[in-house]
């Protein structure tokens, strides 16, 4: 009996050790060592560096860890989303003094407001007293009153009231204000730069502005907006929106009839943008009303554009569709989608038809990209040649941009 008990206890001990070893292995897989993370970042950096100056006809895809590394995502958040221009919304969302909406960029809460001086300002949405969030949602206010202790700030960010806080040597009321972030408006889109040091955005987009001038994108008004979370890496979504190689496969019934892969045409990238033309077949006429300034060639194509890191869009004669991307984890991205129309009196049925086409297209992309993200975690993923510039050139342009900003 004693012998049987000892054998059973020995078996339990071995079983417990095996379980502990398995848990340790799993923990190591999910929480890689500092050395492994450093090696991963070095591999990504080496691949980015290899992109610089290489022509499109020698372009190759990036290694899988470029899209799966959590450590690399933190570098991207700091060097891209906190230091470059990030799109937040459309200027008509704050068309009147006091109009505001709230948002955030990589965890930084923001208020986008049209001040009573009739200028768009981007303020911190954190009370200067003890850090409470000042306001939620959107609306119109003359002052923002903290719900915690009722400190109040005007639309310029200046402190207006601090109940029960009297005169004291270590606090000067008129010197207390909400931090303000650099703001630019381009073609009706509002951008923020969190560290207030990025070069002016408009100068980086001069050639793109010329390219889309006749579309009058700044006159278009958003009539559809939606926000969801996709289970994919944010860069995968930028690349997907900005390449035409998949249009005739993933979007056979939605986009292929209007913008087939074979008619995509790459145009040269600039310092702060890249893109391509999605050309309509001759038998497909211009969809919807178009601005009279457009020439025949412009009427027969969409201009696909990216203002990285997180803004992609497509403008055609009558509408502009766009995404604002906010990475949350290496495998998740917050996707804010919108459609703005040139014809603000567009019929409900025509508006809904455009929305349905856009959302069906986005659903197809979402399904494909979430599948892609699972595939990228395989140990068998390898790099491969990219298609010619007209079809996947913007993927290479994106790599070039990232190499310039991250290395």
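Q: What amino acid sequence fits the structure above?
A:
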């Amino acid at each position: 009996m004693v012998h049987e008990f000892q054998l059973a206890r020995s078996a339990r001990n071995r079983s417990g050790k095996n379980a502990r070893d398995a848990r340790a292995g799993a923990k190591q897989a999910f929480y890689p060592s500092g050395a492994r993370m450093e090696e991963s970042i070095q591999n990504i950096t080496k691949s980015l560096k290899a992109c610089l100056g290489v022509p499109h006809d020698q372009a190759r895809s990036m290694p899988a860890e470029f899209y799966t590394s959590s450590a690399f995502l933190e570098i991207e958040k700091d060097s891209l989303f906190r230091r470059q221009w990030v799109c937040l919304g459309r200027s008509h969302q704050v068309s009147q003094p006091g109009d505001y909406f709230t948002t955030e960029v990589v965890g930084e809460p923001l208020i986008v407001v049209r001040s009573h001086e009739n200028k768009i300002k981007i303020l911190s949405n954190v009370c200067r007293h003890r850090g409470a969030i000042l306001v939620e949602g959107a609306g119109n206010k003359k002052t923002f009153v903290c719900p915690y202790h009722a400190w109040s700030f005007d639309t310029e960010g200046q402190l207006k009231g601090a109940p029960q806080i009297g005169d004291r040597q270590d606090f000067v009321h008129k010197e207390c204000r909400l931090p303000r972030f650099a703001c630019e408006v381009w073609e009706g889109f509002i951008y923020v730069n969190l560290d207030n040091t990025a070069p002016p955005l408009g100068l980086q987009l001069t050639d793109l502005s010329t390219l889309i001038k006749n579309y009058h994108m700044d006159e278009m008004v958003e009539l559809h907006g939606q926000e969801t979370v996709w289970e994919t890496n944010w860069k995968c979504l930028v690349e997907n929106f900005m390449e035409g190689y998949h249009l005739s496969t993933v979007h056979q019934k939605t986009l292929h009839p209007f913008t087939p892969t074979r008619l995509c045409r790459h145009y040269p990238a600039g310092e702060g943008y890249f893109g391509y033309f999605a050309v309509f077949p001759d038998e497909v006429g211009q969809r919807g009303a178009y601005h009279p300034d457009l020439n025949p060639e412009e009427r027969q194509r969409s201009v696909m554009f990216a203002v990285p890191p997180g803004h992609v869009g497509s403008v055609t004669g009558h509408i502009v569709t766009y995404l604002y991307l906010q990475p949350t984890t290496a495998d998740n991205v917050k996707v804010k989608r919108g459609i703005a129309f040139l014809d603000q009196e567009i019929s409900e049925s025509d508006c809904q038809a455009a929305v349905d086409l856009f959302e069906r297209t986005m659903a197809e992309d979402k399904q494909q990209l979430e599948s892609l993200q699972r595939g990228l975690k395989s140990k068998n993923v390898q790099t491969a040649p990219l298609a010619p510039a007209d079809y996947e050139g913007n993927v290479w342009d994106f790599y070039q941009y990232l190499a310039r900003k991250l290395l």
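Q: And what stands out in the fold?
A: The CA atoms of residues 5 and 11 lie 10 Å apart.
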